[in-house]
Specification:
The chain is α+β, with helices and mostly antiparallel strands. It contains 2 helices and 2 strands, in the order αββα. The protein has one domain. The two termini are about 20 Å apart.
Length: about 80
């Protein structure tokens, strides 16, 4: 699912899922942040949707703890950042 998610985002769109912020986005942040290994809140949320959906689809024991109102996730249709 994550492969499909990244392919849907494409190279430029995937940057919105990682820690990429211009200088002075946050207090005392004087330099631009470019980190392709750590997710920002949006990226973390979208990847979590993949994981939760997969747990449910595989009917893993952990699935019983997922709230019923949590929707299934289609990685080809991520939220827009």
């Amino acid at each position: 699912m994550s492969k499909m998610l990244y392919e849907t985002w494409g190279p430029d769109g995937s940057l919105k899922a990682f820690v990429h912020y211009p200088a002075n986005t946050f207090p005392n942040q004087k330099e631009e942040l470019k980190d392709n290994t750590h997710f920002n809140p949006y990226g973390a949320y979208e990847l979590t949707e993949c994981i939760v959906s997969s747990i449910r689809k595989q009917n893993l024991p952990l699935a019983k703890f997922i709230k019923k109102e949590i929707r299934d996730f289609d990685p080809s249709k991520p939220m827009t950042a």
